[in-house]
Amino acid sequence: MFGVIRALPRGSSRLPMSAKRGHNYYKGTGSGAMGRHTKNGGYKVDWNRVRTFVVPDLEGFSLGPYVSRKATPPPKSSTQ
Fold this sequence. Notes:
2 strands; 8% strand
C-alpha cells in the first residue's frame, strides 16, 4: 500500500509544481511577447508576432458552436 510513497526520494512530493513550491520556478501563462517595451515606458506592438486565427466560412452552416445534433431549439419567447 505504501510502496509508492516509500519509493519517493526524501523531500519530494506528489503535489503539482507551482511558483510557491519550486526554487526559481516560473510557469508563465503560455502567452508570448507581442512586442517590446520602449524607453519612455510604453509598449510597441509588433504585428508580425500577434496571433491571428483563421475562421472557415460558415455561411449556410446549420449548427452553432458546441451544439449537439440532438439538441432541440429553445421555445420562442413572446417578448421578442
